[in-house]
Amino acid sequence: MSEIKIKSFFSILISKIIIKLSKTLFKGGSNFPGRIALKIDKNILSIVSKDYKVVLVTGTNGKTTTTSMIYNMLKNSNKNVITNNTGANLNPGITSCFIDNFRFKELTSDKYAVIEVDEANLKFITEYIDPKIIIVTNLFRDQLDRYGEVYTTLNKILEGIVKVPHSTLLLNGDESLLGDLKVPNKLVYYGFECSPNKNTTVEINADAKFCKNCKTAYSYDFITYNHLGKYYCENCGYKRPELDYFVTSIEELTASSSTVKINNFEYIINQPGVYNVYNALCAVSTAKLLNIEDSVIYNSLKNIESSFGRQESININGKEIKIILVKNPAGYNEALNTVSLDNRKINLCMLLNDNYADGRDVSWIWDVNFESLANLNITNAIIGGNRLYDMGVRLKVAGIDYTKFSMCENYDAVLSNIESSDGEIVYVLATYTAMIDFRKFLHRKKLIQKLW
């Protein structure tokens, strides 16, 4: 304790007290303690993260699920590991996470931290942490009022990477923006060597359709979704880098799981959708870099549980409710593709908010392929959130039968419609703050036990 400055000691101590009170009284409060700690000692993150082998996970989609997968693989390997599992991925939340797990008496065993980081905040974290691995999952348009276009998001991430040239970068090789990075770091790539579909033509609303070097439209051997896939530029020769870890084949995709081969080894992923195959592939790649045993990796993916709000299943009076976070066109389209794998009679509940954490501009819903819903056996379309009428208009224009709409001004009405709906399952597709608010509402109703 003598090695810690008095200022740092009080920063940690006061924040620990606040964390304890927040958990006891408010069932949360993951950012506020970190803000207080940083006010007392702006360098506190470098103190509390010392001696950890840190894996940072950033990118537009898949951060929380990928972080959870890697964390569980390390935990199942009996490693001493921490993570910010509440999704508090800004500087104060990450600081809170490390302080909460800080012990004045140091442990002698190796310590790991798997930390989800907001793309624009990576540069603040790498100011104080020199991570072992930095993961970038993908880059899609998301919260345009915060990030701007995908090229701006890439630059924000690179601002953080340049501060830690010794960190290994684990990158999605199917993401054209992440190839040919001019950085001194060791680069490791993962991606698909097969296609989940027969598509080779990029959609008109895809995000990064043009060569990052010469601006010619990319050609593709195959596309997995949006602009991800095996790309190449016919004009300048820029193409996807060689992959170190890759999906060899897709054996089965269902509404509840996926079976795939990664580097010719078969895995069962207890999560549906192509985007979760990407998350699992990234987690497997990370585990290999950390020398985790194959059996642990296999069992971790087979038994992985959903992170809150990410394919989370809740039982309400005998009816299955599956909550899926949707926050941009690419993710929403993949969520709809996953729902389409379910052949049962289904109900959809769509909650749209425009709070700061969602992005104030909701025009992105017009880039979502809601027209694909016409092919599904939809019994009811429950619509809520503070922009419910924007969603209602979008669905009506998409050709969905508006007589099936239930417009809900509050969560009591949403819950009432869910409980009275016909069919076995209700898919709740919610933007970030809508997902958080709806889960808090269900917690107050004692319909879910764990808030975070």
From TrEMBL:
Coiled coil: none annotated. The keyword Ligase applies. InterPro entries: Folylpolyglutamate_synth_CS (IPR018109), Lipid_II_synth_MurT (IPR043703), Mur-like_cat_sf (IPR036565), Mur_ligase_cen (IPR013221), MurT_C (IPR013564). Zn(2+) binds at C211, C214, C233, C236. Residues 325-435 form the Lipid II isoglutaminyl synthase (glutamine-hydrolyzing) subunit MurT C-terminal domain. GO terms for molecular function: ATP binding; carbon-nitrogen ligase activity on lipid II; tetrahydrofolylpolyglutamate synthase activity; zinc ion binding. Gene3D superfamilies: Mur-like, catalytic domain (3.40.1190.10). Signal peptide: none annotated. Belongs to the MurCDEF family. MurT subfamily. HAMAP family: Lipid_II_synth_MurT. This is Lipid II isoglutaminyl synthase (glutamine-hydrolyzing) subunit MurT.
